[in-house]
């Protein structure tokens, strides 16, 4: 029996777990590097963010900074992205 946890996803994720649940996110991790938190968020093919690097990965030292960048847009930078975004548009 399924528990009823399928309420509509809020538009804006606020935690790493919520980022991981976002269909546009491939991975969301935090690691410590010489005592400094490092957040890494990878977007799936077909999505990118306009950040310092304008690519498929967000790398920041705070979640606040991550979410400040987390406005994924459809990406057609390469064949894998074009294929993925076309599939998503069809609802695949
Ligand atoms: Zn791309």
What does this molecule look like?
The protein is of the alpha+beta class. The chain has one domain (16-89). Helix content is 26%, strand content 27%. It has helices at residues 16-21, 63-69, 79-89; strands spanning 25-33, 36-43, 47-48, 57-60, 73-74. The strands form two sheets. A three-stranded antiparallel beta sheet has the order 1-2-4. Strands 3-5 form a two-stranded antiparallel sheet. Strand 1 and strand 2 form a beta hairpin. The longest helix has 11 residues, at 79-89. The radius of gyration is 14 Å and the shape is globular. The chain starts with 15 loop residues before the first helix and ends with a helix. The mean pLDDT is 87. Zinc ion binds at residues 48, 56, 75, 77-78, 81.
Largest sheet: 3 strands, antiparallel
Provide the low-confidence segments as ranges: none
Shape label: globular
Quote the distance from N terminus to C terminus. 26 Å
**Biggest β-sheet: strands ordered side by side in the sheet:** 1-2-4
**N to C succession of SSEs:** HEEEEHEH
What is the percentage of strand-forming residues?
25-35%
DSSP, total strands: 5
Q: How many domain regions?
A: 1
Number of helices: 3
Helix content: 25-40%
Mean pLDDT: 87
Structural class: alpha+beta
Rg result: 14 Å
Q: Which ligands are bound?
A: zinc ion
Features:
92 residues, alpha+beta, three-stranded antiparallel sheet, 5 strands
């Amino acid at each position: 029996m399924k528990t009823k946890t399928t309420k509509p996803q809020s538009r804006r994720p606020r935690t790493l777990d919520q980022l991981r649940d976002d269909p546009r996110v491939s991975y969301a991790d935090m690691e410590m590097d010489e005592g400094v938190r490092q957040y890494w968020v990878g977007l799936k093919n077909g999505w990118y963010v306009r950040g310092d690097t304008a690519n498929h990965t967000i790398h920041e030292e705070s979640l606040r900074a991550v979410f400040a960048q987390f406005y994924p847009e459809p990406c057609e930078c390469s064949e894998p992205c074009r294929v993925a975004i076309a599939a998503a548009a069809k609802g695949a």
